[in-house]
Amino acid sequence: MPDVKPLEPAPAAGRRSGAPLLILFLTVFIDLLGFGIVIPFLPMYAARLNVGAAGIGLILSAYSLMQFLCAPLLGRLSDHFGRRPIIMIGLLGSSIGYMVYGFAYSFFWLIASRALHGACAATVSTAQAYVADTTTEDKRAHGMGMIGAAFGLGFVLGPAIGGLLGHSSLRTPVFFAAALTFANLIFAAYALPESHHPEHRPPLRVSRVIEPILILPRQLTRHHLSRLFSIAFLGTFAMAAFETTFALMVPRVYGYGAAGIGGLLAFAGLIQALTQGYLIGKLVSRTGEPTLIRAGMIAFALGMAPMASLASHAMLFVMIALLSIGYGFASPSVASLISKSTQRHLQGEVLGVNQSALSLARICGPIAAGFIYQTLGPPAAYVAGGLVAVLAAVLTRGIEAGA
Q: Would you say residue 137 has pLDDT above 90?
């Protein structure tokens, strides 16, 4: 297959932000709210169907695997047909996935529902491409941050709503999420305008549709943006390690129970949402994305590495804040740089490759963190996560605004 050629920066002229970006924010927020309502209770739900720990791990990994495979494919389709229809397909598929999940009575149907939902969740990169279509370059990082803020708020509020709905039955939150996502589909169909109108649409053959999957390894390793993909992978790898072990470590080291863990995660989500939705927009014009990525990864490392080693409750909040601010700065800044270095007609596909890198990190990160945590103890897992973040910071050397 031909080598992937460097891409020219996307033109910024003629773009506008405002109402479309707000509508997209609401669409992503409601979608992630449904996700947050369901996912924290998935292990309990699966256990009641007599699914063991290994099976639960497979169910969770099926989501990330399908997202890894489908993100560049759906990104290419959004470059060809427009962002709006792909976002609609994602919302419809998510709603159906929740319904399958709610009616599931076996391991097969649980894993099928998560695979379907993972494939549809690949539209995250399409939402980022929508941001690229509707923002100027100086507002790009802020727009990407708004998408991250929608994620954070959805994860903060979703578990609380799921907990309230799940007292009588763990199926109730799932059906509520299905209805919420379908209502979101109707809202988006009515309110979300198209942001991308391709000037030329060549015939879309099957070979061209599946090509992004076939060349994905080469895109990740030999693309001229591979260093940015690597930084995105390492940052999310470290964050996934934190998310995987946090609920195990906190009771053991800090003595918090379930309610305390929920409160700490809510605190982390709020800090990250504030960072991505507000702070990054204020700072990026002064510092540029490379500086924010570098500072973010260093802050992340300072927050993660000593966690599980310092037993102070006050310091735990400080470390969580540093970690959340760091990831909040780095993740949307990477997406912004990738977008700025990509032609307009390839935004969806290239941002889809970045989403695949993030999904791969969410497959590998939990496995590595769990192994280190179990064999070497909690402090080692967090020191390792901090070192991964430092490596991501080192990779930013030499990267400028043009990537």
A: no
Using CA atoms, how far residue 152 sits from 64, 135, 149, 269, in Å, is 18, 21, 5, 5
> Is residue 2 in a domain?
no
Q: Would you state the pLDDT for residue 68?
A: 85
Judge whether residue 120 has pLDDT over 80: yes
The set of residues, in sequence order, having a beta carbon less than 8 Å from that of 172 and lying 6+ positions away, is 165, 166
CA–CA–CA angle 101, 104, 105 (5° rounding): 155
**60 vs 320: which has the higher pLDDT:** 320
Position 363 scores a pLDDT of: 86
What average pLDDT does range 320-327 have in this prediction? 95
CATH of the domain at 248: 1.20.1250.20
Name the residue range of residue 47's domain: 19-195+205-395
Q: Please say whether the beta carbons of 110 and 104 come within 8 A.
A: yes
Residue 67 lies in a domain: yes
Q: Work out whether the CA dihedral 285, 226, 65, 53 comes out positive or negative.
A: negative
Question: Which residues are within 8 A (CB) of 199 and not within 5 positions of it... i.e. 6 or more apart?
Answer: none
Answer yes or no: is 79 within a domain.
yes
**Token pair 């491409």: residue:** 129
**Which of 71-75, 190-194, 329-333 shows the lowest per-residue confidence on average (mean pLDDT)?**
71-75
Is residue 13 situated within a structural domain? no
Tell me whether residue 363 is exposed, middle or buried, using C-beta atoms within 10 angstroms of its C-beta: 0 to 12, 13 to 18, 19 or more: middle
Q: Quick one: DSSP state of residue 18? A: S
82 token code pair: 């427009």
